[in-house]
Write a structure and sequence with these properties.
The protein has 17 helices and 14 strands. With about 425 residues, it is of the alpha/beta class. Helix 6 packs parallel to helix 7, helix 8 packs parallel to helix 9 and helix 16 packs antiparallel against helix 17.
Length: about 425
């Protein structure tokens, strides 16, 4: 399934080149279909949303049942067990505690002549949270509700709306509804795919238009977000999930194999890469992958992903491994090495960094606290994890006294004249002259 490759060999260099250039645009095959869906939702509203929902998700769903009712919320609470509630509260507390540190403050600068400049930080008015159905509702993505909804609440977003595709019977998994209610989301609509994104972007008779849309999804969701971007803010255009593990001879092969498989089971395009200084570790990881794969419920998916996108590369130093990691700029970067903290200052590009052999990427997915919505396809070079700032906007504040304007007048007018904008210069001049 996986072969050990010398990173310096021709084959190793070819694989690295592929990794360094793995950014791909959304599948153009669905671009036109998504455009048509969005246009129908824009012009037909609820009718279009319901038609698509009936066609692809819940054949008998009625317009009156598009929004989750209070009765459904109450029934959901009765259907989940106390252990789930305990884990939910534990996870909410971890995520909230971490993201509260991200909140930005407004600030002001003053000068002696009476000039005041600053930045006013304010939340957007509304946010839409997209939560995938998860195998027809059988595998509810509770973590997506929490990772998107909690930062929005901390930012101060007044109106949070959740959309998620219903199952064939028109229901939403109770775990999702309980999670939403626990973080203060009470407005949930039964809609998925591109038509849900369209409803959030344009608004319908039932589903309100929002300012920010966040949340993962399939290629239709990703393409819809790309097409409405600009009209609304989006979190990111996410590609397949990925992990890069840097390991030395102190690493435990069983842990590495488990983490590679955890990433590979996401989907058949997921990327799991090991870069190691130890040929012995590399060989044993291959053995462990073979042994552990047979125990997995999604073994076929994981095997396909490793066959097509996995790699084990051997380098002759940690310096080279870290340089490689920075070039690849992976969504998840694990440092399973003797002293990971000593190497942390050398990491420049990664969505999230996991230090040490007892820090599996799965901890970050669920309960560690940092957000698991991360940049993929090398975009960690230029972007960050979803956070409170995703739901904030900043306004500049400027206030001049008469003395301050007189002090700056010559400079303003000089620049205005250079740019040929005489009215700009005049707007200063008339004030300096006292309105004459």
């Amino acid at each position: 399934m996986l072969e050990v490759t010398d990173a310096a060999s021709k084959k190793g260099q070819q694989r690295l080149a592929q990794l360094n250039n793995r950014f791909v645009e959304a599948d153009s095959g669905c671009r036109q279909s998504v455009a048509e869906i969005l246009e129908r939702v824009r012009t037909q509203g609820d009718v279009a949303v319901l038609n698509y929902t009936n066609q692809f998700d819940a054949p008998e769903l009625d317009i009156a049942d598009l929004q989750v009712s209070e009765v459904e919320f109450e029934q959901a609470r009765a259907l989940v067990d106390t252990q789930f509630i305990e884990t939910l509260h534990f996870t909410i507390d971890r995520i909230r505690t971490f993201h509260e540190r991200e909140m930005e403050d407004s600030w002001m600068l003053t000068r002696e002549d009476g000039t005041i400049t600053g930045r006013l930080v304010r939340p957007v008015d509304s946010a839409g949270l997209y939560v995938p159905g998860g195998q027809g509702g059988s595998t509810p993505l509770v973590s997506s509700v929490l990772m998107n909804g909690i930062p929005a609440a901390i930012a101060g977003v007044g109106h949070r709306v959740m959309v998620t595709p219903p199952d064939r019977q028109g229901a939403v998994n109770p775990a999702l509804l309980v999670a939403a209610r626990e973080i203060g989301i009470t407005e949930v609509y039964k809609a998925g795919s591109a038509w849900a994104i369209g409803a959030l972007a344009y608004g319908t008779e039932s589903i309100p238009r929002v300012d920010v849309i966040v949340g993962p999804g399939n290629q239709y969701v990703a393409e819809a977000k790309r097409q409405v971007m600009g009209r609304v803010r989006i979190d990111m255009i996410a590609g397949p999930s990925e992990v890069l593990i840097v390991a030395d001879d102190s690493a435990t092969p069983a842990y590495i194999a488990a983490d590679m498989l955890a990433q590979a089971e996401h989907d058949e395009q997921a990327t799991a890469i090991l870069v190691t200084t130890s040929e012995d570790v590399a060989a044993k990881v291959c053995e462990q992958i073979e042994q552990q794969l047979a125990q997995l419920s999604r073994a076929d998916i994981a095997k396909k992903a490793l066959d097509d996108y996995g790699a084990i590369l051997v380098v002759d130093s940690l310096e080279k491994a870290i340089t490689m990691a920075n070039r690849i700029a992976s969504e998840h970067l694990e440092l399973q090495i003797t002293d990971p903290w000593a190497w942390l200052p050398h990491i420049r590009h990664a969505g999230a960094i996991f230090l040490g052999s007892y820090t599996p990427e799965a901890a970050g997915d669920y309960v560690a606290g940092p957000n698991h919505v991360l940049p993929t396809m090398g975009t960690a070079r230029i972007s960050s994890a979803l956070g409170v700032e995703t739901f904030l906007k900043k306004s500049s504040v400027i206030s001049y006294s008469k003395r301050a304007l007189c002090n700056d007048a010559d400079h303003i007018q000089r620049l205005a004249n250079l740019e040929g904008l005489t009215a700009h210069g005049n707007s200063v001049a008339v004030r300096v002259r006292g309105g004459e």
